[in-house]
Write a structure and sequence with these properties.
The protein has about 290 residues and is an all-alpha fold. Among the domains are: about 55-70 and about 120-200; about 200-290, Up-down Bundle (Four Helix Bundle (Hemerythrin (Met), subunit A)), CATH 1.20.120.290. Helices cover about 80% and strands about 0% of the residues. The longest helix has about 40 residues, at about 55-90. The relative contact order is 0.08.
Length: about 290
């Protein structure tokens, strides 16, 4: 068989081999290495900067305002309980006589001092609140430009400004309950701003605290209408938070799972005191997330 005939005979086979080799080579060149897309997303996350000090200051000031109001409310409740117990005790001893005048005088002095201390713990210092809200407006003025540059949309910025103004008006009106409500309503915006930056604990954990507080605020007024919506918010925020944790604490997360279940149960049963207890346990556990 001549060389020319041999070439014609095997030409189709050679052509097929060349085509297969060409296709394989193209795939190798164009194929994205496994995990490259995830690495890009990870790099984009790593490129985020730390939250500006002005934003952190705003969040801390709002949180402290809420905590101060809650502590004053608790102190008032404790004082009222002690006053009831004292009144009952005095009524039971109303027929007893005390001839030791000095002892009585010392007792009265101690009671007066105790009452003054209790009065400070159960009253809001509105001058301090006025000063704090003024400082918050200054911090917001610092952060607003930065927020826009860092990607916050106009709707979020305008909503925060409106809520900050509303909170300020309530502080000027010196209404303790309304200040607590509007301070908590301001707090719900911080997770959205914090998602623009690096973070350790997922910002959605702050949403959980907002929802839990709002449920307890409403429950104090025997208003349970929005309970289901707020509880759904807790469940969704927690699911998102867990999915974003790089190094989750499995034991702590399980504790929070159970704390949420317990809080949902007593809330649905409209048991105020138990809801307060379970809600505080939930928020304390949330604070442990690092």
């Amino acid at each position: 068989m001549t060389r020319k005939k041999i070439i014609y005979k095997f030409f189709p086979i050679i052509l097929i081999i060349i085509i297969i080799f060409s296709i394989t080579s193209c795939k190798s060149v164009n194929k994205r290495p496994s995990g490259q897309k995830d690495n890009i997303g990870s790099k984009q996350s790593e490129q985020k900067k730390q939250p500006p000090k002005s934003l952190s200051s705003l969040e801390n000031s709002t949180k402290k305002m809420i905590e101060d109001l809650e502590n004053i409310k608790k102190n008032k409740q404790n004082k009222n309980e002690k006053d009831r117990e004292k009144k009952q005790s005095e009524e039971s001893q109303s027929n007893e006589k005390n001839d030791e005048q000095n002892t009585k005088g010392e007792k009265q002095t101690k009671e007066n001092t105790s009452n003054k201390t209790a009065s400070k713990e159960t009253q809001i210092n509105w001058e301090v609140f006025d000063k704090n809200i003024q400082e918050m407006h200054k911090k917001w003025n610092e952060y607003e430009v930065q927020a826009k540059e860092d990607g916050a949309d106009s709707q979020l910025i305008n909503a925060f400004k409106s809520q900050l103004n509303l909170l300020t008006e309530k502080i000027m009106g010196k209404n303790e309950y309304e200040v607590l409500v509007e301070a908590n309503n301001l707090y719900k915006y911080f997770p959205q701003f914090l998602n623009l930056y690096k973070h350790n604990a997922p910002p959605e954990t702050l949403e959980i605290k907002y929802y839990a507080r709002q449920i307890l605020i409403d429950a104090e007024k025997n208003s349970w209408e929005n309970t289901n919506i707020l509880l759904d918010g807790i469940k969704k925020s927690w699911a998102t938070a867990k999915s974003r944790m790089e190094k989750p604490d499995k034991t702590l997360n399980k504790m929070i799972d159970f704390a949420i279940e317990d809080f949902i149960k007593v809330t649905n049963e409209k048991k105020l005191e138990l809801a307060k207890l379970k809600g505080q346990i939930l928020m304390d556990n949330i604070d442990k997330i690092k």
